[in-house]
Specification:
Shape: globular
Largest sheet: none
Keywords: Membrane, Transmembrane, Transmembrane helix
Number of helices: 3
Order of helices and strands: HHH
Structural class: mainly alpha
Length: about 80
Protein backbone atom coordinates (compact mmCIF):
# COMPACT_ATOMS: atom_id res chain seq x y z
CA UNK A 1 0.00 0.00 0.00
CA UNK A 2 1.40 3.38 -0.99
CA UNK A 3 2.16 5.95 1.65
CA UNK A 4 -0.31 8.43 0.11
CA UNK A 5 -3.12 5.89 0.34
CA UNK A 6 -2.44 5.46 4.06
CA UNK A 7 -1.95 9.12 4.93
CA UNK A 8 -4.85 10.64 2.99
CA UNK A 9 -7.55 9.32 5.37
CA UNK A 10 -5.50 10.59 8.33
CA UNK A 11 -5.21 13.98 6.64
CA UNK A 12 -8.97 14.07 6.04
CA UNK A 13 -9.62 13.29 9.71
CA UNK A 14 -7.28 16.10 10.80
CA UNK A 15 -8.96 18.50 8.38
CA UNK A 16 -12.38 17.64 9.79
CA UNK A 17 -11.12 18.27 13.33
CA UNK A 18 -9.98 21.71 12.15
CA UNK A 19 -13.47 22.26 10.68
CA UNK A 20 -14.99 21.56 14.09
CA UNK A 21 -12.54 23.88 15.82
CA UNK A 22 -13.19 26.60 13.23
CA UNK A 23 -16.92 26.34 13.81
CA UNK A 24 -16.31 26.50 17.56
CA UNK A 25 -14.24 29.66 17.07
CA UNK A 26 -16.99 31.14 14.95
CA UNK A 27 -19.99 30.27 17.09
CA UNK A 28 -18.69 30.28 20.65
CA UNK A 29 -15.75 32.66 20.48
CA UNK A 30 -17.36 35.02 17.92
CA UNK A 31 -14.28 34.96 15.68
CA UNK A 32 -15.60 35.44 12.15
CA UNK A 33 -12.42 34.10 10.57
CA UNK A 34 -13.15 30.75 12.20
CA UNK A 35 -16.01 30.16 9.78
CA UNK A 36 -13.78 30.82 6.79
CA UNK A 37 -11.07 28.52 8.08
CA UNK A 38 -13.72 25.86 8.73
CA UNK A 39 -14.91 26.26 5.14
CA UNK A 40 -11.33 26.12 3.85
CA UNK A 41 -10.52 22.87 5.58
CA UNK A 42 -13.90 21.38 4.73
CA UNK A 43 -13.11 22.07 1.09
CA UNK A 44 -9.63 20.57 1.51
CA UNK A 45 -11.27 17.42 2.91
CA UNK A 46 -13.69 17.35 -0.03
CA UNK A 47 -10.73 17.87 -2.37
CA UNK A 48 -8.91 14.88 -0.89
CA UNK A 49 -12.02 12.69 -1.01
CA UNK A 50 -12.82 13.62 -4.61
CA UNK A 51 -9.23 13.04 -5.70
CA UNK A 52 -9.37 9.58 -4.09
CA UNK A 53 -12.57 8.88 -6.04
CA UNK A 54 -10.90 9.88 -9.29
CA UNK A 55 -12.68 13.10 -10.19
CA UNK A 56 -11.25 15.21 -13.00
CA UNK A 57 -8.66 17.91 -12.71
CA UNK A 58 -11.16 20.69 -13.44
CA UNK A 59 -13.34 19.77 -10.46
CA UNK A 60 -10.31 19.57 -8.20
CA UNK A 61 -8.99 22.91 -9.45
CA UNK A 62 -12.33 24.62 -8.71
CA UNK A 63 -12.45 23.18 -5.19
CA UNK A 64 -8.83 24.23 -4.63
CA UNK A 65 -9.35 27.84 -5.76
CA UNK A 66 -12.48 28.25 -3.63
CA UNK A 67 -10.60 26.86 -0.61
CA UNK A 68 -7.71 29.22 -1.28
CA UNK A 69 -10.04 32.22 -1.52
CA UNK A 70 -11.70 31.19 1.74
CA UNK A 71 -8.31 31.03 3.47
CA UNK A 72 -7.42 34.43 2.02
CA UNK A 73 -10.64 35.87 3.43
CA UNK A 74 -9.91 34.34 6.83
CA UNK A 75 -6.42 35.79 6.93
CA UNK A 76 -7.78 39.16 5.85
CA UNK A 77 -10.25 39.13 8.75
CA UNK A 78 -7.44 38.30 11.17
CA UNK A 79 -5.06 41.04 10.05
CA UNK A 80 -7.68 43.69 9.25
CA UNK A 81 -7.91 45.06 12.83
CA UNK A 82 -4.11 45.34 13.10
Amino acid sequence: MALAEMLTPVSIAIQLIIVILGCYAGFKMKIQAGFLFALTFLLFAVYDMTSMMGYGDDTLAIINIIASLSALGGIYLLVKPA
